[in-house]
């Protein structure tokens, strides 16, 4: 487990590759240039990410990695995760992104996000050719999805609709239960 640690001024604070059944709890993560906590390539199996505090993640344009999987606070790729009771303040892109089956995202407080990139959400999931079943998003408080169109390719292209969502279910997301969340001051509530 990773618990009761302080991470300050890192590129990415915690990167997990090939780790299962890990608990990451009661950590304080501040001033990261890229990701706060990331699991890679469907290897984040049965992760518990609880009671962590994140402040100032990926706020310097051009300093994080480019493309998907970068500039996120918590990026969970796997299944059976519990992402709960985290406090996330001021992130360049997506505070919580998860891809997989039977993930639970509950009781998180998220504020001030999408500050350097756009086309994201406070909580984001995507299926992309997998059947994601049994995931639950509930009892989260999400506010101040600011957005940064300048941080998104082709944002000036006619017909572009890059927005900032409170909860964003993208590309073939299915079988995700969304309930009892409070979303305020975002361009779009749920997408």
Q: What report would you give on this structure?
A:
The protein is mainly β and 191 residues long. The chain contains no helices and 22 strands.
Gist?
With 191 residues, the chain is mostly beta strands. The chain has no helices and 22 strands.
Topology diagram in text:
Elements (H helix, E strand, L loop, with lengths): L1 E2 L2 E3 L5 E3 L6 E3 L2 E5 L4 E3 L4 E2 L2 E3 L2 E5 L16 E6 L2 E3 L2 E5 L4 E4 L4 E3 L2 E5 L6 E7 L8 E4 L2 E5 L18 E7 L5 E4 L2 E5 L1 E3 L1
Parallel strand pairs: 1-4, 2-5, 3-6, 4-8, 5-9, 6-10, 7-10, 8-11, 9-12, 10-13, 11-14, 12-15, 13-16, 14-17, 15-18, 16-19, 17-20, 18-21, 19-22
Question: Are there runs of 5+ residues with pLDDT below 50, and where?
Answer: none
Q: Pairing-aware structural class of the strands and helices?
A: mainly beta
How many E-type strands? 22
Largest beta-sheet details? 8 strands, parallel
Shape: globular
Q: Please write the string of helix (H) and strand (E) elements.
A: EEEEEEEEEEEEEEEEEEEEEE
Q: Helical amount among residues, as a percent range?
A: under 10%
What is the beta-strand fraction?
Answer: over 45%
Distance from N terminus to C terminus (CA atoms, Å) equals: 34 Å
Radius of gyration (CA) equals 15 Å
Number of helices: 0
